[in-house]
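Figure S7 source data.
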Amino acid sequence: MGTDKDTKTINFNNINGNKPILIRRCTLEDLEGVIEINEKELPEDYPYFFYKSILDNFNESFLIAVDSNNIVVGYIMWRVEKIPAIDSLKISNKGHLVSIAVVKGFRRLGIAKALLTQSMQEIKKRIIDEYVLEVRVSNYTAINLYKKFNFSTQNIKYKYYRDGENAYYMVCKAK
Ligand code: ACO
Ligand code: ZN
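Tokens for the predicted zinc ion complex:
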């Protein structure tokens, strides 16, 4: 599923008159730009093969925001986890938000909202029961954003991050 040929323009968001932004699927050529943003904006870095495997397996919900010069200014990536329920043979599918970031000069324009809205619609097609994510307890900005999308904290994962910070495990039902 998800070859580069599947890449399509999902929407054109003229979010700000001066900064027309295109939201589209990530391709192999865009990965370098995504990794650069991740390294700049988030302390959690992943090896190249990790991004590549998300691109290969969950391409439809791996979205990027590009500016008019086709420079990547934001990204979002998800994976689907199959979790066996403790009390039955049922498998529960969870859409797991792996990472989202927007470069500083392009924040507060609604890019994260656009990335979340479109990618949640895409990942839902995998028949998931809920959307889940971890976020640093100090990341007020991101927590605010997730609350807007009806995520609520289910529990705290203690010392989840390498530097010892706790994570909120946030969940949103996929109706
Ligand atoms: N202060 C408070 N709330 C904020 C702020 C802020 N500075 N910025 C965004 N928000 C919240 C608001 O609720 C906002 O809605 P509003 O504008 O209607 O008030 C909502 O987020 C959406 O704002 P957007 O403009 O769509 O968000 P933006 O494009 O600026 O990106 C993001 C938000 C991704 C959190 C950005 O700040 C960022 O890249 N931060 C660093 C990386 C990061 O922390 N990523 C999340 C890690 S957790 C994970 O990836 C699972
Ligand atoms: Zn996670």
